[in-house]
Amino acid sequence: MKNKLITQLEMLRRHLKKNYENELLVHDNGxxxxxxxxxxxxxxxxxxxxxxxFLRCAACDELFEVFATLSxxxxxxxxxxxxxxxxxxxxxxxxxxxxxxxxxxxxxVLDKLDDHEAIIVVDYKMxxxxxxxxETKSKFFGKKG
Length: 145
Fold this sequence. Notes:
This protein is mainly alpha-helical.
């Protein structure tokens, strides 16, 4: 059972890291359209899809099956921890979706620029340390001498 679970987890990891991004459909112009698989429909993820979804991706659903199996094997004492891990993986998938979609949007905007236009990219996630204004460089980096 242990080897089966390890194999299942390795296949799930490979799918989430490599194959999942390729299954999401965003055209070169930055527009996404309806996909029959509910797991891959970006319009459904953004709450804008009005069509029915009758298919589910077995590889994507493996995530929920693994956690159900682990919950069954480990018992109720680990349910809180397992649900926390499942939430973290769901957030990772949401990050992957946003990354693919925003990258396609960025490339679509770049394609529309002409010779007299420019785009400014600002990184709002940059970590600024306020202590650096009061400390010397050698003290900040912990070097002496």
